[in-house]
Amino acid sequence: MQPLQGLTVVTLEHAIAAPFATRQLADLGARVIKIERPGSGDFARGYDERVRGLSSHFVWTNRSKESLTLDVKHPQAARILERLVLEKADVVVQNLAPGAAARLGLGYDRLAPLKPSLIVCDISGYGDDPQRTGTYRDKKAYDLLIQSESGFVSVTGTPDEPVKAGPSIADIAAGMYAYSNILAALLQRGQTGRGRRIDISMLEALVEWTSYPLYYAFEGAAPPPRTGASHATIYPYGLFPAGDGTHVMLGLQNEREWVSFCDKVLQRPELAQDPRFTANFRRVAQRDALRAIIVEAFMPLTGAQVVERLEAAQIASAQVNTMDDVWRHPQLKARGRWTEVGSPAGPLPALLPPGSWDDGPRMDPIPALGEHTDLILRELGYAPGAIAALREAKAV
């Protein structure tokens, strides 16, 4: 039996943050009913067509879900949605604009008296708790905007230019905290029988992920410098060229490794006692001089020879893989981490979620828009004629 089997999640979601949270609930066996706009659906469906005509964003975050199309502003559709929540849902998740769910009658304050066991998770850019609004509550919030607002962009990139993270980390952070808070609320409900409201802010999630740079700049101190693909406060820890044009990512964590690096990798044991480099903070301060020494030592070597020396010295290293390399990564293959999921475009490869359990994660198909509408309406007692009438009225 999967951990969340028997639980039903109703979600009004789009883009990444909420869909990523609910996909993880689906991975654990929850039934996730995704409410989508008739005709267009989750706007992430239209971000690109990179996966055999499907959106890469949508493929990643929407397996194992059921798609129900409802025009939630249509009176008949609104009644269907309310019935679905009150009769079926254990959890409601939404990342609509702040206040939109409440205007649709789906706010926790309205639903809790009707169904005290219900868990409602609201995801927004800056927080949607009516008791703690702040002046940013109604600002539009997209991933890159939150990366900027949180300070993340200011400490990421090169000295010449700040950059964003490649993945949508603000959305992912919010989705992870929504997921973990929902699991905690389910455990609490098991003890008390009562649900609760969860208010997830993308800004708060990513400020938490900003981690040590925030404390590094404590009480007005200078923040960590932007150092590209090198670590800002540990050195040597970053990307170095070899003589054959390849690059090697390597990292040292302590003085024992520094001595070994000088002896077995650079083959200059005396360098370990150079007063410029005898502690990490000194190496950071002298990173340009030390980098020049390392680059000079690596120039006669191929990337493979550099890695061979690093492994002999027990210094951590990694390849700078492309996305194509990751699809073919030998460690993922050796651990059996790839499977397939169905989709409107046919079977697609999918990475099993981290962690494992005896029954394995649920890996059901990615839904076509409205694929499960008739099924769910029949569960609610609608006859074929009534469903046809709803379609005629453009409610579904």
From TrEMBL:
Task: Supply one GO molecular-function term.
Answer: CoA-transferase activity
Domain of life of the source: Bacteria
InterPro entries the UniProt entry points to: CoA-transferase_III_domain, CoA-Trfase_fam_III, CoA-Trfase_III_dom3_sf, CoA-Trfase_III_dom_1_sf
> Mind telling me which Pfam families this protein's record contains?
CoA_transf_3 (PF02515)
Name of protein? CoA transferase
Q: What Gene3D superfamilies does the record point to?
A: Crotonobetainyl-coa:carnitine coa-transferase, domain 1 (3.40.50.10540), formyl-coa transferase, domain 3 (3.30.1540.10)
- Species assigned in the record: Ramlibacter rhizophilus
Annotated keywords: Transferase
